[in-house]
Amino acid sequence: CNDFLDYTPTGVVPEDKAFSYPEEMVNSAYSMLGDCWYSYPFNLWPYGDLASDDCLKGGGGTGDTGYHDIEVWSSLTSSRGELDELWYRLYCAVSRCNRALVSLQEYGENALGKSTTTQREAEVRFLRAHFYFKLISVFRQVPWIDEQVYKDKATEKTSNTQYTYQQLCEKVIADFQFAYDNLPEKQVDGGRPNKIAAAAYLAKCYLSLAWGDGYESADGVSHINKDYMQKVVDYSDVVKNSNYDYLEDYGDIFLPEYKNSKESIFAVQTSDYSADHTRYGRANWSNTLNGCWGIWSCGWDFHKPSQNLVNAFKTRNGLPEFKDYNDSDEYPINGKPTEQKWDPRLFHTVGMPTFPYKYESQYTLTKANSRTPNTYGYYTSLKEVPQRSKGETYNRPWQAFDMNDYVLRYTDVMLMRAEALIELDRLDEARQIINDIRQRAKNSITKHISYAADQCEIALYPASYFQDKETARTCLRWERRLEMGMEGSRFFDLRRWGIASETLNNYFKTEQNDVYDGQKYAEYYKDAHFTPDKNEFWPIPYNQLYYIPGLYEQNKGYDK
Amino acid sequence: QDIIVNGTVKDGTGEPLIGVSIVQKGTTNGTTTDLDGHFTLKVAQGSQLKISYIGYATMEVNAAPDLQITMKENAKELNEVVVTGYTVQRKADLTGSIAVVNTKDLKTTSDPDPMRALQGKVPGMTVTGDGSPIGTGTVRIRGIGSFNSSQDPLFIIDGVPTNMSLNSLNMNDIESMQVLKDAASASIYGSRASNGVIIITTKKGKKGDKVAVDFSMNLTTQFYTSQSKMKLCNTSDYLTAMAQAALNDGLDPVAYASNYGVNLNSSSGVPITAYNPLTGEMINYTASGKYNGYINAKETMPFSDTDWVDAISHTGFSQNYDLSLSHATDKHSAMFSVGYKDVSGILKYTSFKNIAARLNTTWNLGKMVDVGENLTVTNSSQVDCAPMENALKMPPIVPVYEKDGKTFAGPVGSMSDRENPAREQYDNRDNHLDYWRIFGNAYVELKPVKGLTLKSNFGIDFKTSFINALTHTYQSDVVRNNIAKTTLSNNNETNWVWSNTATYQFNLPGDHRFNLLLGSELSKQSDIDFSAYSEGYALESVEYMWPNAATGTMSNSGAKFGYRLASFFGKIDYNWANILLASFTLRDDGSSRFGRNHRWGTFPAASLGFRFSQLLHYNWLNDAKLRLSWGQTGNQAIDNNAQFGLYVVDYGLDRVTSTAYDLTLQGKGTFPSGFRAIQLANPNLKWEAATQYNIGLDFMTMGNTLYGSIDAYIKNVKDMLINPAYLGATGEGGNQWQNGPSLRNQGMEFAIGYRKALDCGLQLDINGNLSFFRNRVTYLPSTTTGAYAHTSTQDLVQSRKPYGSIVGYVVDGLFQTQEEADASGQPNARMGGLKYKDLTQDGKINSDDQTWIFNPVPSFSYGLNIGLAYKNFDLNMFWQGVAGQDVYNNQKFQTDFWAITDPGSNKGSRLLGAWNTNNTSSSIPRLSTMNRADEGRASSYFVENGSYIKLRSLQIGYRLPEAVLAKLHMSNVRFYISGQNLLTIKSNSLTCSDPENPNWNYPLSSSATFGLQIGF
Questions:
Q1: Is the pLDDT of residue B113 over 90?
Q2: pLDDT band with cut points at 50, 70 and 90 for residue B934
Q3: Which candidate in B394, B600, B661 is best for mutational testing of the A interface (most A CBs within 10 A)?
Q4: Has residue B62 been placed in a domain?
Q5: Contacts of residue B733 in chain A, CB cutoff 8 Å?
Q6: Around Cβ A462, how many Cβ atoms within 10 Å?
Q7: Which of residues 323-382 of A touch B (CB under 8 A)?
Q8: Among B244, B291, B189, which Cα is nearest to B929's?
Q9: Which residue of B has its CA nearest to A520?
């Protein structure tokens, strides 16, 4: 009878069998890089952009998705479902890494040999640190689950207060350091991180720590740790001296034809379902809502640039209008140049009515290409979408683009370097970097945006702007905003610099008066308020707090 | 002088009666009949014998050496033969709680699913369902059985267990149906019995001198009444609410409406009036399409006034036909039937068609051997579509078709990206799921010695289903699909069961009767799924769209799964002089779903019956029996692979769980892939066990006219199989099947009936039932409390709440002024918005202010059946109701708020009565274009009184008189008309139309039926 009752499951493998294939376990840890969705986007666009002064949520109204709370902060509570989902999915990614590490430790040497095993361990620790960096960036106090906790089955006993924020960051740094120490400068498989990527990420980690603990009361100019700033310089040196470099045209960076160019230090790889044998495509599902309305078959019109961001691109004599850029709302109209000139990167970053959509005049944007203009205005984000004529990946009712997601691009790392150099009083070196970047922007008009040529004006900073740290900082911060606009970094930048509350609360006051061609919008910002020493981080999700009562503690300032 | 009386006692059909009491009148000298109905008694010559038997009229006969006695039935209920699991018993001998279903009503129902037709008819059995032509009823016996393993009862049809739906069963084939409610009755089915067992027996051939031919049919139309249709806004209402929402927020309604393709300052069009709270004035607008009378820039969709529910509905129509031939002799019996159902629901392009053929035969192959079989083959075809939500949300300004009259229109501008429900239905019209099902059993029965029966029964339930689902291309303004595709799927499910039983019946002196059963059973289920996806078709038609014609991407998927069960069981029934009855059962089950160490489960039961009426000898009390029972049953209805720790390859079946990655930057082709975890192992997984105590009383009084029963039970479920939500930090595949919580159900059931033929010729047959239960979670493991409903201070156990309770905020009216709102401590509180109670009284509203707001268990439910017959007319009326029931009214998001879900979508007309500064007595929150105060959170605002009484059916029939029938050489002709769901009485405070459908389910329609039943 027992033989009759013995049943072997089909189409699945038991754990020990799976673990005996370490290469495959590592593959699946990699694939988690792209196993994301708009409600748990691993590129964190809602947290980096919606939460900042760069962008409005978009979509069918304030109730479309749960991200309205993230824009206005005042109504944000720990029960917001997207937070719980993001937490869980990032830990799914961590768990794949931990399992891959256990598999490598137990079976790696036999299956792969010692050196490959060490290299794979370094790759997986890079991936795990990448996911933890996101967890800590959003939730701050998170439980540290590594392969030892996994093996000890101690997850349900591991508190989110076991380590301080500083210690958690050091754990992440230790993983990246291991990757840095054990990875080659160039990988045979280009999708794997290399030593340079690890150096870039280490620079990013140290830069974040160098400013303080993230809360405004202990962060900013008066809390700078120069040793960490020096680390940023040291690790970005490695990047600077590598084969990575600036891509010649700014627009090319955001075209799928140029994925994995010399600009791309580490990126999440994507592909189209018609080419990769999957049902839906290993596409960029984080950005699935972000296509423009009426251009794509399923463009749901999320992630819409703010007027404040557009205004920030204003130039006078080719330089930003630091003080008065936002005193009046301006926007360019195609073919009608005015006195107001613009940084050319505006036309690569923001889609505006009357202008070609991503450089193609046969797809010129109109005011009808906005889904809820009285709430979210008429701008659309261009960087995360391909050109319309190059086809679209399409799967009803969700559409996603075969667009790599940059984790680290060369310019980003150089801006980090410039930021550290300024704080280390090496202002001239910083100016050199910033001007290199501006020069590239200046060179990025004829190839793609010639129609806007007569509206563009950009100049390099004269030495006078880099005589004192304060002005140099302003230049750096402005440059970072323009160069990295809509790439999911802005809120984290403001937080790092300790200026989130001032910047955002000012932004809320002005942005609610947005008008485009007579249409008022963004009035919902009258509800918005950013509370310092609380809103710098998001709350620990309510569900997670309750699963095992008492295991976790809530972040500062939030209710259960 | 004494004589020896040798006699035989039989019933009206010639079957011997066992255990009939034969007493010499005026003495205690007596005996009882044996297994063949024989008795032998020595009595004084010339004495009289009193012959009595429960359920039969007591007789007195003169003693004679050789007596052939036929007894006359006088209480049908008691003599019904009840199938109680591998054996049969007379109802009078039952000691467990078993409901015998009146199957007569099923024969005239227009409902394709027999269980749905039984709603309210069996005390303790709850049936819920929607109005879909395919949908089957959800059956719950005695409360909530489990969290995560199945709560469905086990169906046994002719000895073959099945969990598949019964809508393919021909209802005219059903001879009898029993519901085994208590554990003592059900435990003979062991591991699958804890949610109760429903036993269905199909018809055998009827004895007679000729072949009996029966034909029946009914035709039914289905339609909406005001009680099943949601009250939606028309274009004028919709735009009024829109303008009002904008004005309330200080927005310009003209600009706001322009997001939805509407110009409110049009020179001609629909007049709208809204109240401006800033000025206190009413403002007039004239609404039309923003683009020269069209709502889209391409000017293809004219500004309209569409009733979307009408657009997707029509009058439903269903037909049922059944023909059967039957014959039986002493040597054989045969019954052949064919039944056809064709139901077209009230939503267009939804249908269910089923043809079922059955052959039941038995053969007596000599003295010792009987063989027989029951076999039914069915073919079904169904088209299902669920467009209700989209129909209720699509704004009325959107036309069904664009101006060309054939392109389906769709949402514009800020409207949420919902599909045109009429297009959804239409494009789905060819996507019929077809299946063949073969269900049946064959058996051999040996009777080697007297009283001993050996039976071997082999049963099979096989179903193969198939669908080629087409996705058409379409474009409606900015929403489109460019690629035609198909998903071709096939599922094969095979179940077989082989059971072997031995029964031995014997009597011991002193009127002790025994019935022993021993048996074993093996069963196996296996299920194979296969699906192929293909895209790119040059033509879009049901004839062309097959994978061979596809030019684009193709992919496929498939899997196999199953389980096995092995069982041993035994049963002893004991009867002492019809006064004391007892029964003991024991079953041992082994399941492949558990690991070797915990594979076998033992399920014992004992029950006792005490017929005290035999001792009381009251004339008015015809029969009274007390029943006590205790028993254990199991549940193993969990995933086949539940015990294992499993990893899978997931190359790309879904978007976000893939294990493949383009490591080599190849861009195309096959990427490196790996394994991901889907489940943690639990080698200690074991049976979920329910222990149930039952006490019951059956009675029959007033000359067998008034009868009834009362049952009370306690059912404790422990080691419940759960697959709880888990700590996020566990990561992927952290789910694990565990034995954990405990649950208690306790309840009572009452059934009473009165049956009498009055002298005036009127026959009454009235019966009613009422039942209630209470449910409570009694234990939760500490690591899972957070996975179930809880407040910030109490979990389900601490609060002593039933499973399915909901936690939320308590609404205490609306804020009448902004000052009141500002002082409330509630984030973003607003004038005219919901005011939540500060339960902690700490001056702020946060998650600590949540409490238990919804109880899923009604106070009680009941049914009342009134049957009247006069001469050749008959009338039958059935009422069913539920009292003290909470409903969580999800429609309220749409009927009471503009912006909780889908701002800009269509809404209920209640919105027009919302609170405003000129209408402060309203309890409907003030309209707003935004949901700033998070008013969609779980709160008591959405919990309503869902109590109702429904007139489920009213039927009037006429039977041709015998004289006419004789001339026609017919045995029966009856016509009837009936109406279903004709009337609903519900609470005034309920704001949705149908208390049974507070969501977007397939509407429950009303219907009218004409039927005919003929017999030759």
A1: no
A2: confident
A3: B661
A4: yes
A5: 95
A6: 11
A7: 366, 368, 371-375
A8: B244
A9: B255
Q: Is the distance from CB of B741 to CB of B784 less than 8 angstroms?
A: yes
**Pick from B559, B729, B827: which is nearest to A74 by CB?**
B827
Nearest CA to CA, how far is A324 from chain B (Å)?
Answer: 29
Find the farthest-apart pair of alpha carbons in chain B and give their distance in angstroms, rounded.
117
Residue B53 lies in a domain: yes
Angle between helices A114-139 and A165-182 (to 10 degrees): 150
> Which residue is closest to A296 within chain B, CA to CA?
B478
Q: What CA–CA distance (Å, rounded) separates A558 from B178?
A: 57
Tell me which residue range forms the domain holding B39: 2-74
Name the residue with tokens 């697959």: B723
Q: Which of A191, A277, A368 sits opposite B663 (nearest CB)?
A: A191
For residue B717, what are the contacts with CB-CB under 8 A and spacing of at least 6? B145, B146, B194, B635, B688, B689, B690, B742, B743, B744, B745
Q: Which tokens is B641 given?
A: 């692979």
Contact check, Cβ <8 Å, A92/B732:
yes
At residue B966, the 3 state secondary structure works out as helix
For B528, nearest residue in chain A (alpha carbons): A10
Chain A residues within an 8 Å CB radius of B416 = 60-61, 64
pLDDT tens track for A251-308:
999 999 999 999 999 999 999 988 888 888 999 999 999 999 889 888 899 999 999 9
Partner-chain residue, chosen from B785, B790, B846, that has the shortest CB–CB distance to A559: B846
Question: What domain count does chain B have?
Answer: 1
CB pairs < 8 Å spanning A and B: 322
pLDDT tens per residue across span B391-413? 999 999 999 999 999 999 998 88
Q: Which of A27, A375, A396 sits opposite B659 (nearest CB)?
A: A27
Do you know the residue count of chain A?
Answer: 560
Indicate whether B999 pLDDT > 90: no
Best B259, B470, B795 member to test A by mutation, with max A CBs in 10 Å, is: B259
Q: Which of A475, A376, A367 lies closest to A431 in space, CA to CA? A: A475
Token pair of B371 as six digits: 């063989």
Residues B857-893: pLDDT tens digits? 999 999 999 999 999 999 999 999 999 999 999 999 9
**Residue A557 contacts B, CB cutoff 8 Å:** no
pLDDT tens digits, residue range A108-163? 999 999 999 999 999 999 999 999 999 999 999 999 999 999 999 999 999 999 99
Token pair 């030892």 is found at A148
Question: What whole-number distance in Å separates Cα of residue B299 and Cα of residue B302?
Answer: 7
Comparison of pLDDT for B481 and B399, the residue scoring more: B399
CA angle in degrees (0–180, nearest 5) for A249-A310-A53: 110
B96 near B180, Cβ under 8 Å? yes
Instruction: Give percent of chain B above pLDDT 70.
Output: 100
The structure tokens listed for B140 are: 């719950």
CATH number, domain of B28, equals 2.60.40.1120
**Nearest CA among B720, B740, B738, B526 for reference residue B643:** B738
The CA-CA-CA angle for residues A456, A460, A465, to 5°, reads: 125
Q: Do B646 and A84 touch (CB under 8 A)?
A: no
Candidate from A2, A7, A285 with C-beta closest to B655 = A285
Burial class (CB in 10 A: 0-12, 13-18, 19+), B215: middle
**What average pLDDT does the structure give for chain B?**
91
Residue of B nearest to A368 (CA): B297
In a domain, B18, yes or no: yes
Place of tokens 């039942």: B771
Phi, psi of A92 (to 5 degrees): -60, -45
Which residues 199-258 on chain A approach chain B with CB closer than 8 angstroms? none
Number of Cβ within 10 Å of residue B778's Cβ equals 15
Q: Quick check: is B128 in a domain? A: no
Distance from CA of B739 to the nearest CA of A (A): 17
Q: Across the interface, do A191 and B522 touch by the CB < 8 Å criterion?
A: no
